[in-house]
Design brief:
Elements lengths: L1 H18 L2 H6 L10 H41 L4 H17 L1 H31 L4 H7 L1 H24 L7 H16 L6 H11 L2 H6 L10 H12 L5 H11 L7 H20 L8 H8 L4 H13 L6 H11 L5 H4 L10 H11 L1
Helix pairs in contact: 1-3, 3-4, 3-5, 5-7, 5-9, 12-13, 15-16
Length: 361
Amino acid sequence: MAKLQIFKAKINNACTLIKAIETDIKRLDEPFIFPEGRSECEQYVRTKKGAITHLLNTLQNAVKLQEAQVNAAINHIVGRQDQKERERLMTDLNRHLKVESHQLELTAAQWQNKIQFRQHELMEQSNVLHSSVPSISNQSINGSERATTSVIDRSERLLKIRKPTLEVPSFSGNYREFNSFWTVFESLIHNGDELSDTDKFLFLRQALKGKAAAALSCIPVIGDRYSTAVNILGKHFDRSANLTDIIINEIERLQRAFDNPRSCRETFEAINARFIHLEQTGMTMNADRIWRRLILSKFPEVICTMVIQKESQSDHSFDLTEIMSTIDRSSLFERPQLSRQRPYSRRTTTIPTFQDQLSIN
């Protein structure tokens, strides 16, 4: 048992070594800023390549050390003759690894993918620099025309490499944000003919955070698995087909507003935010009975009566925009001069007060 404690301590030390480079890993989220001058750009690429290679070696060595200590602990347990003692020690070791080591293995794999992605970006930039150098024979044959073409080609390729790093949004697993994320990613990366599937996969992995990143953490970053990764991502987070039902359920679960300004305002904002989200997905909002009944059921009777009265005074039936606008105007009660006149309570005498303030609006 004492021997196992020594192995546990060594495993902890290896985990600490891995976590020590977390700050350097976070710096990789910053985009590369390549200098305009050729020589300065080459020096910048060499410096970044060296730093990232050193970081990758440090991470890989730390992971190997952790694996070696875990294997040593397992071999020590397997060497015990008593089966019950082996089972007890293995259970103890597994419990210890669950605390930190298992999760850290996954984190280290994600870090390694991020490092390799940034290495690939530097390699692409280096290829651009080398491909833009005209040979001596080409200079003598084509002169300034080829040099001009090389500069234009270099600028265009630099733009293609830089744009995704600056503009690809991140996605952390919120299904409400998936459609907007995928629309941008599809335009910038997924439909890009100049990018290989491996490049697209690298950009996708860099853009994913939290639950979204965890969903693809076990898929190796190779071109053949890119389409599989896209399908898994859509299966997990694309709720566009049943988004209306989800929004309806969320509104149904909202508590009906109390007879006071703050409660009415909070309920209104909660419903309005969900309608805005539906409209952004391209859904046409109308005044179907289900929407009308659903909205009015979340407000006090006095507001519902006021909406019906306003509608009867007009020459047409209110659509959802008009219903929400009417409720909005009626629920703006948080004015200092009104809130100081009389506090609201749950007695029946509060209803006239509520109506009095509605008439003021």
